[in-house]
Amino acid sequence: MDQYNLNTREGRWKHFGSVDPIKGNKPTEKEKMTDLQSSKKDFLFEIDHVGIKNLTYPVRLDSYQTAGTFSLSTHLAKDEKGINMSRILESVEAHYDNGLSLDFDTLKTVLITLQTVMHQKDATVDVDAKWFFDRFSPVTNLRAIGHADTRFSMTVEGDTTINKSLTLTAMVTTLCPCSKEISEYSAHNQRGIVTVKADFAPEGELPANFKERILEAMEVNASSMLYPILKRTDEKSVTERAYENPRFVEDLLRLIAADLVELDFITGFTIECRNEESIHQHDAFARLTYNK
Ligand SMILES: Nc1nc2c(ncn2[C@@H]2O[C@H](COP(=O)(O)OP(=O)(O)OP(=O)(O)O)[C@@H](O)[C@H]2O)c(=O)[nH]1
Predict the structure, then answer these.
(1) How does pLDDT run across 34-58, given as a tens digit for each residue?
(2) Distance 199 CA to ligand 1 centre (A)
(3) Distance CA 73, CA 200 (A)
(4) Could you tell me which of 42, 81, 140, 256 has the fewest CB atoms within 10 Å of its CB?
């Protein structure tokens, strides 16, 4: 039986197996520690992206505080062993303002800070975050909170943005035209998942409502939109709207593409529509990439 005082935390820790630290020969002051990552010689390859992924950090998107999942990286020259990773978090923290404002102007300032403190030629960020917005039921006009998924992506080189894109993912209803055509009554319908990656002119201005305009193209072309609150009058309306607007996954994809072509602040896009089929165990999907 050991003799540790179980009435103290230290005694309990030792009782459970903790040991005293060894004396050790390595320096404990930062100035005397080897800075391995900063060592220079021929390390064979330059690296396109090195950094951190899966960083969870508070963001403000429109009027909502939400959580962002960040990937942040820089280039690394061939003669440098590693980046100073702690500086990535320092670059984000430098722009903290009750969370990080999730907009391209703020992301650009973070990237310029990152690139500068890393002494690298470029920096890249991807941020995934839930976007919450007001959604009104179609007949009763009751407000509730809807949501879509966003990914803000950006790369800067020096002071110049070299790419900038927004990926939105939203859910819709699709009603099968074939099923409607061949059946005496009813038609199977399902929840469709639409993803649009919209590319923007890197240094171009965006309209204030750019997210809303892309989301509208994704939702209004479906058989029906989704709503958080539906009373009976609303339910009748969305059911009939879906029947009046049947869509194959291909139809939805092409109709969204036609709307996106008309949005002049988008330079190119990739759309994927995926239907979680209600008459199969598998999903149906279609994808299209278009550059203007
Ligand atoms: N480069 C590199 N760093 C890593 C890796 N894995 C962990 N680290 C990080 O290395 C960090 C040390 O960060 P640095 O920024 O190099 O620390 P530092 O040199 O004291 O910081 P500065 O004073 O800014 O130069 C630790 O916090 C670890 O998170 C890796 O695979 N590569």
Answers:
(1) 888 888 899 999 999 999 999 999 9
(2) 33
(3) 21
(4) 42
